[in-house]
Amino acid sequence: MVTVVGAGFAGSEAAWGLAQRGTPVRLVEMRPHRMTPAHQTGDFSELVCSNSFKSREADSPPGQLKAEMVALGSIVIPTGEAHRVPGGTALAVDREKYAASITQALNEHPLISVERRAIGPQEVEELAQQAGDPAHSLVIATGPLTTEDLATWLAGQTGQEHLYFFDAVSPTVEADSVNREIVFAESRYGKGGGDDYLNCPFNKEEYYAFIDALLAADKVPFKEFEEPKYFEGCKPIEEIAAKGRDSLRFGNFKPVGLTDPRTGRWPYAALQLRPENKEKTLYSLVACQTRMKWGVQQQVLRMVPGLTDAEFVRLGVIHRNTYIEAPKALDPTLQLRNRPGVYVAGQLTGVEGYVESAAMGIWAAHSISRRIAGAEVVPPPRASAFGSLISHLQDETEREFAPMNINWGLFPEVDLGPGKIPKSERRLAKLAAARSEFSAWSTTAAEM
């Protein structure tokens, strides 16, 4: 029986993928008996930050990754689609219904045995010693909030001091507390559903007053042993604002493509709200991660036009995330280089995001299944989304290794001949290569 520790995105995909291929799985999850600083339930694959799985557009990097995941038997993507809520071109989901469906599916699978308890490093070491037998492989998918004792064990196995960065969670408000006389519904440049996003428009004076208050607000202090190393895509808004008073309106709060019906012009800046559920009773503040203290946080965020009377059902929090230095610690199958049969999956590997983490759970399951069958594990083609993520994890270029989302920069360039080729054409060529090569690979090496 293969043991999977952790039932987040990666652990859920790993357990499901193995069971669907006929391998008995023991899935160990410590929640709800032992909670993390960010989780609120004991459900599997709980979304603790945004409710978006990124773009649904087929010609985008996230769209290509989703297509490859579905081809390899993903449970996360089809379940997300089944519980989709309005989100423009993004796959936004109802977080509660989605997680409940994943939990039910795994609990009811005849080859998955669920154990609700914490697991310590001594037991993990015992399981690792048994993992030399492929049928008793071990998958560690405990995520960015891995407990200290287990993280210490993992760091000892990799020979590296474990790395970490800080991730921040955006606040959520009740929809009926938003002032719709000020806030207007519009997706940027009219893309996606016209009313998928709500927009809070700042004029110049309102924007700079907000920035001043944001910079002056009390922040949650770091502990002495914590060095702030943020993943760029989740940097708190106060960290961005500290780089310059206009940083937010040229970044997270950019107003381009949005027309305020009260003025007929683009606002000076705009904070967007995205639905958290299908009924649109809750909205999250898009790209508004923050580590402001909760009391002052409400005061500052209520300075946003249209949010003066906002009722916050969840405030922004910050927590430490853990990941390992994958190029030195993992082989292309996600096994620890010095512990055969011990696999790492999810964000611990050095990918970033729900979908990317889930994809690494799928790849771990595929690798183990091939190993159990005594078959060669043929890596996905470099041109594919899977291949691009694994290449990131295997790239030994001297650098400060950091988590990465799927993006165009990870896909290899395609030779289109001499001369300057427009960016749009180069991207289409990358996508065509990804589709073609992944299709050929998945019908041969990926089949069991």
CATH topology group of the largest domain: FAD/NAD(P)-binding domain
Largest sheet, in brief, is: 6 strands, mixed
At the first level of CATH, what is the class of the largest domain? Alpha Beta
With helices defined by DSSP (H or I, 4 residues minimum), what is the helix count?
13
Superfamily (CATH H level) name of the largest domain? FAD/NAD(P)-binding domain
What is the helix content? 25-40%
> Which ranges are low-confidence, i.e. pLDDT below 50, for 5 or more consecutive residues?
none
CATH architectural type of the largest domain: 3-Layer(bba) Sandwich
Write a concise synopsis of the structure shown:
The protein is an alpha+beta fold. The protein has 13 helices and 17 strands.
What does this protein look like?
This protein folds into two domains: 2-165 and 322-442, FAD/NAD(P)-binding domain (3-Layer(bba) Sandwich); 170-316, Beta Barrel (Elongation Factor Tu (Ef-tu), domain 3), CATH 2.40.30. It has helices at 9-20, 61-71, 76-82, 95-108, 121-130, 148-158, 204-216, 237-241, 294-301, 326-329, 354-372, 385-394, 423-442; strands spanning 2-5, 25-29, 52-55, 84-85, 90-93, 112-116, 138-140, 163-168, 172-174, 184-185, 198-202, 269-275, 282-285, 312-314, 318-323, 335-336, 339-344. Helix 1 (9-20) links the parallel strand 1 (2-5) and strand 2. Helix 1 (9-20) packs parallel to helix 11 (354-372), helix 2 packs parallel to helix 11 and helix 2 packs parallel to helix 13. The strands form four sheets. The chain has a six-stranded mixed beta sheet with strand order 6-2-1-7-17-16, with helices on both faces. Helix content is 32%, strand content 16%. The chain has 448 residues and is α+β, with helices and mostly antiparallel strands. The longest helix is centred in the C-terminal third of the chain and has 20 residues, at 423-442. The protein has 13 helices and 17 strands. The radius of gyration is 22 Å and the shape is globular. The model has no long low-confidence stretch (mean pLDDT 92).
